[in-house]
Description:
The protein contains 17 helices and 23 strands. It has helices spanning 19-28, 58-74, 91-104, 120-131, 168-183, 194-199, 208-214, 222-227, 244-252, 289-292, 323-334, 355-363, 379-384, 414-427, 431-442, 456-463, 527-546; strands at residues 42-43, 46-50, 81-85, 109-112, 140-144, 153-159, 203-206, 232-235, 256-258, 300-304, 311-315, 319-320, 346-350, 368-371, 387-392, 396-399, 446-453, 474-475, 478-479, 482-486, 493-500, 504-510, 516-523. With 548 residues, it is an alpha/beta fold. α2 packs across α5 (168-183), α4 crosses α7 and α11 packs parallel to α12.
Amino acid sequence: MQISPLAGKPAPPDILVNVPRLVSAYYTDKPDPAVPAQRVAFGTSGHRGSSFTRSFNEDHILAITQSICLYRKAHQIDGPLFMGLDTHALSVPALSTALEVLAANGVTVMLATDDEYTPTPVISHAIVGYNQGRKHGWADGIVITPSHNPPHDGGFKYNPPQGGGAATAVTEWIQNKSNELLSNNLKGVKRMLLEKARRAATTQTHDYLHTYIADLGSVLDMDVIRGGSLHLGVDPLGGAGVHYWGAIAAHYRLNLTVVNQTVDPTFRFMTVDWDGQIRMDPSSPYAMQSLIKLKDKFDIAFACDTDHDRHGIVTRSHGLLPPNHYLTVCVDYLFRHRPDWGGGAAVGKSVVTSQLLERAATRLGRRVFETPVGFKWFAAGLLDGSLGFAAEESAGAAFSRLNGQVWTTDKDGFIPALLSAEMTARLGHDPGELYQAITHELGDPVTKLAEAPATPAQQQKLAALTAKQVTSTELAGEKITAILTQAPGNHAPIGGLKVTTQNGWFAARPSGTEAIYKIYGESFLGTEHLTEIMTQAQEMVDTALAKS
């Protein structure tokens, strides 16, 4: 992938989104349901798009919300709906639109006290907590966020009663019903004026912030963190957790500095990501330049993306840790320092997460549950305790409470961030040093991710790759041990292809959230071997895209 000359530099004024135009387009531009790119499309985590491209406009939210109401009714989900939003410019208008529909349908909606921004894991935590022990009156939720996507994007995600992202069958039903409503000029959508919806008896408030923060001591050893006398730094990246971190520090008496408390829908305070766009990605060394430069001021520092379901860890010893490095450390640490977790609690990982996690899990005697990309695949295991820890390579993770019971069933950026402080305080070494010790015993892999633009048609071709298209018996000089189009853990299609050897692998798949494709590669034999792997992988993708 070609790195932009702006990468890692402060965002120049000419690339900042025009927020008034963006919001105006949300209300005035109408999508054409005959155009595929303007229809409702749920990727790995909800519907995403921009009002500028008529892929995230008021009509989309009206249709999706009405479809969710119909889905709830059909499945007898009649408890409260917990709804939150992040700091993207399109999130506030989308919440207003959704509330008009939910109130008109008589759905009890739980909004944050004082209209506070609400992170994704906080919504999941609320749903799981409310539903625990219930036989009926289930709660569910909506999170309005495009995650770490650029400022011109909006996102809308449905979380059913299990608390995590909805399963494919659910999102397909909502997607199809939404597009049906769009094609019928929204006939059948119930709606009331926003002022009336705000005053409706079904519109209620919930103290998400203090409820979530007060419960953190059940999933993290806050006494160890406090007793370590660490100076912690955090950058919320202008996201939904911006007001949570100070409250966490006050509640648990931590020496924690919030380095940036600015909320600005242009995200002008960010450094530019690899492709010249503003993207609040805590795993990107380009987007994280501001915090990386402060690494020597803190014993450990961390950041989260806009809806706070992803984390980035900055250590004194190694700077920003690649996600796979830190996730491996989490596996090794958690299963050694959570004595009340059952012996059967497994490690969940996506097919594109490092094989080093598997080696770490095997050394600990833990089963590995490997799934397609998308955190929704881990929700059931996190809920019933069969998964103690679950992660995907894009810096998303969640894990059980100290007693082995469910915490959240969606990605949670807060707890892996704070876990970095727990392990540093307890062990006297930061996660960068701990990773180095692990690789000394289990091998030191090198990884690479290649990304390139892809049209919807090209994405479909990549998703349809088959084992028959791999004609070689070797990959980069090693015997191929597996060719996967289904995940080993649950046998669900991975939406692409993964090829493995003893010491390396690659996976090729379209992105579920952006108009790009991705090729992941990893080698335990060094950079030259990885280059061979990536070259062969790219040749295969080029051949697939060239076919009519």
